[in-house]
């Protein structure tokens, strides 16, 4: 793995490293979410190691809390969450970025955590399904999924909800067909699609 | 209140309560917050380590040796288990005695890691255990396996394959080769004869949650297993037999199941192998199948072809149906979906005959997949009926009404209830069927061809039974327990509703516990049996509670019911009162507090299907005859209506409208029921248009074992869907009057799509999935 991948940059990069989509996104509401968190100022004073071998302590900011996890550089963010931090709300459906069950937010953008190494997520703001509600108060997307029965078995649900929240923020839920397309990276084998659509569109309508 | 005459919910609860209301899922909050714990997520088990399979690259051969030197030296490795060192099991399913002792829970008659034989590609050949997942995964790549490779047989279509009649083996001739009248002769003399062959690709259940097991030996002779199973009671029994432990020493837990669709109905090799790995390393082991491994670890729907010959009068009245099926099975088992049943059942036809042939190949055993038999069988009969409609110039609904079966043609028995005509009528109304152009290929939207198709659905009420316990507390709360599972079907929710009405308290006062073999045993959540069985057991257990409290009341001088006859007492919304004079009575809480009863417990066995109507006949019937032991034939029915848009230049098919109307007895919760019907239809749309696993024709390996290459429907594939239910009151099927609805919605679905494509293009496509290449190919042929 190139060492520069773990070097913190001055500004967060878009997930796909595409400058175009980054510029597009940073113009809107998402731009605020993308602004570097204050905590990162202090963290940046300590340079991350250029090379990492074997298990090291990684510092991850998850759901507003700083968590330290000892893991090898090959550990994915998904496995760090599920196997080391007991944040099992994020699901593993395929481990290859094909199903979307592992979707989390990194600096406000939806990301497949199975395709993200934990070590790369240092210095970034990670939000998982466990961090979406404010105490007992559910996020409107969670409420909408309950209301519209946007799930059956519930296994794809955390990924659908994280994706749905981002989809609305991106402005990709303005019509039914647009929301269908931009939610099509999240598979649901129980077939709750029509209800997921209803939930996402309802939240988009209120946004 | 005599339990000898089994009470029926419709009689004791005539007024609407929460049953039948669209209650939001009671487990919903846990699912939307990530709090719901699935089988691979019990990380608090002390000392948990990770297991990973090393699988075979070849489909046939013999293991001649291992080179484990590098793998053993890899950091963190605790054990490398192979057939040479796996702790020995008391019994394995590869002998007839073993299979019998293990029971229905294990379907596959071969257990990897017990011999040097390789029978199918990606068969596990070793299980590597290490302290972390990554280290186990890496060590597995270092393990070298030496194999003497042989040429595999790929499928029934392989020239090497030998077809055989499975009825001579496990199933028994009469069950598997049904025959009524003289179908050959009737067909030969029929004025209209239609013969066609239908192909069905291999399909995989692919629940979003792959199979996973955590095995924790809490004592040398006691193990707890967190397992992705639809049936904890079956799993517990089969594991105890294989381990040689008393049943109570094996505990199986499954609180949340990430979909199943049949593949989690049986206990598959990874579960018992994880348990043995945990034994070998002396620590709890977690093993989660990878997605590619999911394709070769928990069964599939077999590749198959059906030839249906249909004989009819010039007017379109059926005279004869002859059904032949050929499919692939594994080296050891004779599994085949029983497609013929629905072909025999749907329409009034005097002559019927069917036969099934199998061929052994280097594949793992196929298994139950949502409506096994009914789903592919309905594709054949429902496309054939559509063909017949065109042939005689009738509307597709008219041809079905002309051949409507007023009683079950396969048994001659009356239906317990059948509201299929209402389903046709309501579906047609919702869809706007009357505006359909009877001509094929005559409706266009721009350059897109538009087609409307429909098909009939049906699914049997299998015979089953299960237990439940209800504990009612004097403070007005209750705990309800049954060892069921909820694979997204809504079991948590609908049973909470049934308990609420049965106990006369609100749903928020009830905790329904399921998914633990320490709870009263019940049926597997499969075969659309769980809702009807568990709801009936819980309802009856509540009646047991009332019977116990009535006995206390009539002895209590301070009770208004003192010295009343128990038979004169009724319970309405938790109030015990005289039937003749309802003002004389009291709430259960007051009675219990006076009698110093903190709680009262009721237990009951609920029966589903023939066992409810004819307990004695079902008890004494052979295993394959239990469903038919009642005086009535018990089935749910429905109808699907589908609109497709076909691009004649690209061959793409999009489903643009969908209507399903289902008559499934009492609907416990229309919100979850609607979701289940939509989900089953989407499952069927996938099978119709995109799902298929390809086996390499030389190597017998799957070439698309991933969710990128095996296509399931995504959100954009699915249009607005309309689902409605027809009200049905059926007193014969169980105490709640419930017919299962988990599977019916995939029955007829692929035919509805195929019939719509026929209407759009004038081309009949008989090989599933109907992918663009097949459509284009058909468009090049004359209509």
From TrEMBL, chain A:
Keyword terms, alphabetized: 2Fe-2S, Iron, Iron-sulfur, Metal-binding, Oxidoreductase
Protein's UniProt name: 2Fe-2S iron-sulfur cluster binding domain-containing protein
A molecular-function term among this protein's GO annotations: metal ion binding
Pfam families: Fer2 (PF00111), Fer2_2 (PF01799)
2Fe-2S ferredoxin-type domain boundaries: 56-132
Organism annotation: Hymenobacter ginkgonis
InterPro entries with a match to the protein in the record: 2Fe-2S-bd, 2Fe-2S-bd_dom_sf, 2Fe-2S_ferredoxin-like_sf, 2Fe-2S_ferredoxin-type, 2Fe2S_fd_BS, Aldehyde_Oxdr_Iron-Sulfur, Beta-grasp_dom_sf, TAT_signal
Keyword Manganese: no
Top-level taxon of origin: Bacteria
TrEMBL record, chain B:
Aldehyde oxidase/xanthine dehydrogenase a/b hammerhead domain ranges (all copies): 33-151
Residue ranges the record marks as coiled coil: none
Domain of life the protein comes from: Bacteria
One Pfam short name: Ald_Xan_dh_C
A Gene Ontology molecular function term of the record: oxidoreductase activity
InterPro entries xrefs: Ald_Oxase/Xan_DH_a/b, Ald_Oxase/Xan_DH_a/b_sf, Ald_Oxase/xanthine_DH-like, AldOxase/xan_DH_MoCoBD1, AldOxase/xan_DH_MoCoBD2, AldOxase/xan_DH_Mopterin-bd_sf
Name recorded for this polypeptide: Molybdopterin-dependent oxidoreductase
């Amino acid at each position: 793995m190139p060492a520069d991948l773990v070097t913190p940059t001055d500004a967060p990069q878009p997930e796909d490293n595409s400058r175009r989509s980054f510029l597009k996104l940073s113009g809107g509401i998402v731009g605020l979410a993308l602004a570097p968190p204050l905590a990162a100022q202090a963290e940046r004073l300590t340079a991350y190691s250029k090379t990492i071998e074997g298990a090291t302590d990684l510092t991850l900011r998850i759901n507003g809390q700083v968590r330290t996890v000892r893991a090898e550089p090959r550990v994915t963010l998904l496995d760090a969450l599920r196997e080391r931090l007991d944040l099992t709300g994020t699901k593993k459906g395929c481990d290859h970025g094909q199903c979307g069950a592992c979707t989390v937010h990194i600096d406000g953008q939806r990301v497949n955590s199975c395709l993200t190494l934990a070590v790369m997520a240092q210095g970034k703001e990670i939000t998982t399904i466990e961090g979406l509600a404010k105490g007992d108060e559910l996020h409107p997307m969670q409420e909408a999924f309950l209301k519209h029965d946007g799930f059956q078995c519930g296994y794809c649900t955390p990924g659908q909800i994280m994706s749905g929240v981002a989809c609305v923020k991106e402005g990709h839920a303005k019509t039914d067909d647009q929301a269908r397309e931009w939610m099509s990276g999240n598979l649901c084998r129980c077939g709750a699609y029509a209800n997921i659509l209803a939930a996402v569109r309802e939240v988009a309508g209120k946004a | 209140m005599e339990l000898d005459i089994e009470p029926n919910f419709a009689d004791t609860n005539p007024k609407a309560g929460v049953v039948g209301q669209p209650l939001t899922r009671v487990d919903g909050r846990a699912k939307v917050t990530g709090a719901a714990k699935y089988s691979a997520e019990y990380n608090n088990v002390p000392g948990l380590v990770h297991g990973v399979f090393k699988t075979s690259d070849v489909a046939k051969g013999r293991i001649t040796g291992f080179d484990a030197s590098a793998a053993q030296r890899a950091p963190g490795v605790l054990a490398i288990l192979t057939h040479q060192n796996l702790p020995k099991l008391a019994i394995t399913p590869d002998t007839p005695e073993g299979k019998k002792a293990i029971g229905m829970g294990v379907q596959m008659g071969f257990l990897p890691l017990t011999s040097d034989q390789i029978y199918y590609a990606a068969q596990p050949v070793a299980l590597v255990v290490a302290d972390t997942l990554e280290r186990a995964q890496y060590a597995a790549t270092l393990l070298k396996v030496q194999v003497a490779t042989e040429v595999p047989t790929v499928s029934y279509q392989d020239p090497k394959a030998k077809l055989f009649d499975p009825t001579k083996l496990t199933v028994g001739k009469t069950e598997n080769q049904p025959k009524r009248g003289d179908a050959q002769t009737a067909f030969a003399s029929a004025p209209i004869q239609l013969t066609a062959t239908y192909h069905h690709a291999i399909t995989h259940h692919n629940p979003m949650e792959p199979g996973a097991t955590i095995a924790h030996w809490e004592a040398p002779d006691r193990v707890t297993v967190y397992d992705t199973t639809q049936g904890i009671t079956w799993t517990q029994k089969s594991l105890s037999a294989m381990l040689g432990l008393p049943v109570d020493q094996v505990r199986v837990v499954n609180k949340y199941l990430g979909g199943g669709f049949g593949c989690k109905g049986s206990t598959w090799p990874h579960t018992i192998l994880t348990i043995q790995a945990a034994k070998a390393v002396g620590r709890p082991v977690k093993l989660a199948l990878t997605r590619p491994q999911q394709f070769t670890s928990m069964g599939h729907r077999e590749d198959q072809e059906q030839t249906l010959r249909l004989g009819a009068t010039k007017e379109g009245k059926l005279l004869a149906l002859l059904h032949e099926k050929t499919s692939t099975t594994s080296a050891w088992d004779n599994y085949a979906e029983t497609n013929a049943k629905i072909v025999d059942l749907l329409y009034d036809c005097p002559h019927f005959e069917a036969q099934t042939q199998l061929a052994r190949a280097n594949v793992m055993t196929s298994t139950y997949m949502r409506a096994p038999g009914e789903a592919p069988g309905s594709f054949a009969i429902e496309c054939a009926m559509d063909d017949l409609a065109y042939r005689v110039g009738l509307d597709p609904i008219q041809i079905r009404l002309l051949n409507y079966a007023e009683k079950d043609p396969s048994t001659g028995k009356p239906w317990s209830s059948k509201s299929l005509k209402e389903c046709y009528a309501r579906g047609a109304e919702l869809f706007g069927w009357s505006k359909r152009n009877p001509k094929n290929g005559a409706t266009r939207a721009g350059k897109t061809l538009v087609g409307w198709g429909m098909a009939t659905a049906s699914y049997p009420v299998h015979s089953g039974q299960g237990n439940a316990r209800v504990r009612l507390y004097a403070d007005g709360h209750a705990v309800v327990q049954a060892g069921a599972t909820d694979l997204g079907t809504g079991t948590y929710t609908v049973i909470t509703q049934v308990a609420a009405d049965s106990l006369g308290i609100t749903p928020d006062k009830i905790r329904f516990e399921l998914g633990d073999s320490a709870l009263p045993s019940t049926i597997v959540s499969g075969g659309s049996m769980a809702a009807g069985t568990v709801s009936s057991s819980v309802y009856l257990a509540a009646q047991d509670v009332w019977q116990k409290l009535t006995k206390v009341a009539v002895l209590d001088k301070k009770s208004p019911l003192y010295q009343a006859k128990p038979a004169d007492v009724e319970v309405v919304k938790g109030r015990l009162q005289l039937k003749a004079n309802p003002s004389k009575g009291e709430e259960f809480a007051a009675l219990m507090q006076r009698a110093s009863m903190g709680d009262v417990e009721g237990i009951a066995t609920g029966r589903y299907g023939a066992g409810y109507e004819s307990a004695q006949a079902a008890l004494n019937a052979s295993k394959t005859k239990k469903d038919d032991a009642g005086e009535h034939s018990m089935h749910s029915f429905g109808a699907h209506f589908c609109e497709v848009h076909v691009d004649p230049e690209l061959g793409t098919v999009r489903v643009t409208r969908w209507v399903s109307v289902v008559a499934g007895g009492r609907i416990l919760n229309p919100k979850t029921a609607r979701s289940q019907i939509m989900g089953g239809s989407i499952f069927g749309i996938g099978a119709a248009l995109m799902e298929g696993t390809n086996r390499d024709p030389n190597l017998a390996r799957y070439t698309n074992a991933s969710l990128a290459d095996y296509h399931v429907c995504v959100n954009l594939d699915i249009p607005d869907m309309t689902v409605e239910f027809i009200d049905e009151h059926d007193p014969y099927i169980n105490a709640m009057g419930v017919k299962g609805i988990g599977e019916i919605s995939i029955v007829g679905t692929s035919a509805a799509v195929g019939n719509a494509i026929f209407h759009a293009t004038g081309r009949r496509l008989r090989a599933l999935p109907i992918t663009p290449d097949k459509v284009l190919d058909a468009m090049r042929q004359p209509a």
